[in-house]
Amino acid sequence: IAGASGIRVFTITSVADAILVDMKMTGTTLATILATTADNLVVRRITVSGGSIGISTTSAGNGLVVEGCDISGQSAGGIDVGHSGTVYILNNKIHDMTSATGIYGIRLNDLVVTADFRLAGNEIYDLEMTGTGIAVGIEIPSFRTALIQNNFVHDIFAIGDSTGRPIGIGRTSAGLAATSVIGNTVVSILCLNSALYSGGLGIGILVNHDNEAVESNSVKACDVGIHVLSSAVDKAYVSGNFAQDNGQLIDRGGCESTTPPAPRTELTNTLTLCTFARSSVRAYTGTYSYRLTKTGVGTPSAYLQDTVLTTDMHGFLPGVLYR
Predict the structure, then answer these.
(1) Max Cα distance, the chain (Å)
(2) Rg (CA), the chain
(3) Cβ distance 81 to 111 under 8 Å?
(4) What is the pLDDT of residues 212-246, one digit of tens each?
(5) pTM above 0.85, yes or no
């Protein structure tokens, strides 16, 4: 089913117990599927491409299941949830979205504050921010309570001349509701832009409200792994998480080249109160890696630029995908 410009593909209004199953839809400029006051709605095994939002539920409604859908190519977001009651968002793939103003994989909006949300088994990937907004895999606004469990969120970037910020899982403003973030895998949430530090760093899991439990998650290769952001956060519980290779300035820790590599695009290498040189003392996997050594009083920093020469591959390995 394909929508014309300015026309929604599917709208459900004031209908209870509707079931959408095994369809393929192509949207244009509006939300492809819009449900308003649709109690006990089930959306299962739907492929949605294009449109501003893949699936959007507004004006409340009580009870929602979105399961096994493939959602891609939207300009604003994948799934936007405004239902109350029991809401299950399960085993969906949401991917390949680009925006200059803000984009999300799954967003639990603040239209309704009394809901039981369960998000599990979803894969969200390849979201790119090219402007000044936020790209976020799973977004929980201020007053939502949710269980976010066993999701795989990866490859969310701020790119080009963007000053935006990528976030894997998190609440984008400080809130009060309790949320449990348990057993998720978050990989490669990164700023890959020329305005890296004006936009902020990519954050794997963002803790920004009271009574949040962050347990048994794996966070890898992000600018920041787990970040407790707000000074007003009280009683956050962070336990049993695994964080690896977050905050590295170099994207290939096993490089043994004699010239320092860097994935960023600053015009020149800038070292402040430090040296950055090849060292056998801090070998990563082989004989050498690169070691930052503080040389003065204060905070050291190293903004680096690769030579971008085809003859300078810095030890790329065959069969490995580099982004």
Answers:
(1) 68
(2) 21
(3) no
(4) 889 999 999 888 888 887 665 667 788 899 988 78
(5) no
